Fold this sequence. Notes:
The chain has 372 residues and is mostly beta strands.
Amino acid sequence: xxxxxxxxxxxxxxxxxxxxxxxxxxxxxxxxxxxxxxxxxxxxxxxxxxxxxxxxxxxxxxxxxxxxxxxxxxxxxxxxxxxxxxxxxxxxxxxxxxxxxxxxxxxxxxxxxxxxxxxxxxxxxxxxxxxxxxxxxxxxxxxxxxxxxxxxxxxxxxxxxxxxxxxxxxxxxxxxxxxxxxxxxxxxxxxxxxxxxxxxxxxxxxxxxxxxxxxxxxxxxxxxxxxxxxxxxxxxxxxxxxxxxxxxxxxxxxxxxxxxxxxxxxxxxxxxxxxxxxxxxxxxxxxxxxxxxxxxxxxxxxxxxxxxxxxxxxxxxxxxxxxxxxxxxxxxxxxxxxxxxxxxxxxxxxxxxxxxxxxxxxxxxxxxxxxx
Length: 372
């Protein structure tokens, strides 16, 4: 969750006014502008299961957004970026604003004589996803995985703005390791899994590597579905289709020998546990980035954490909170008073007044209950 306080958590549950504004950084501009523009409406979505990470759709007034010389909008989908904020003003005058993120502009649409633009933009990870290799890239078994991951992302980002350049020359491919022919994003995802982390851009536009979320994380927000609670409605779905309770991760050592590790769900209170009512249902993950048993264990553990709760999905409509992020752990109190822990996979909020939609996985509680 973005920085906040108990006072802010309480304020979003009360009557308040919503404010949303953004600034523009033009491609190849020496410095970003500090000029902020108002967004009248739109939506912001953060999704930890997608390559792009986050997306935003903005409706903005045309006033002040035209270039006097060219007659074109001052924001264009040719490398421009926007920085976005959403905040609240409470009746008592308390104000709080959260920077939601930095986004690459994907499209700009307008009609004459309409007074508004519609701008679509996506998180900076989309730039990494788009930046395909122009020649095969080798990630060696003995490479520093975090350093390689950060370098791959930096290469994609340096193509934007001052000092832009093409992909660096390909490495030689006569060493043991993983070879990626096209997708830079596949290489980043494999390296992140081998490190047991999520690779994402934070709200300031910086790459961060954070542990894969689990039920042991701190609860950042509590939602109450009671009569005076903050939940408008919620729904659940039981589905074993994509679920698993064990992960086998396989790789190759620096000598070319196979290495592997099995990690299983051994929670005795979980009906999805290994060897419990669900059975023995492993999934496999193979990557030549994994060079020893510890690499395999970390990757398997991260993949297992991503699988926890898949058999019990929950969707929630509630009051909007600008600080909430995908990957956060929240507590939901049901209409019957039961409490469950949910890891959020997707957060969608209005940039103006309105309700927020959350979807995630129940990772604690509701083990055997039904009809809650």
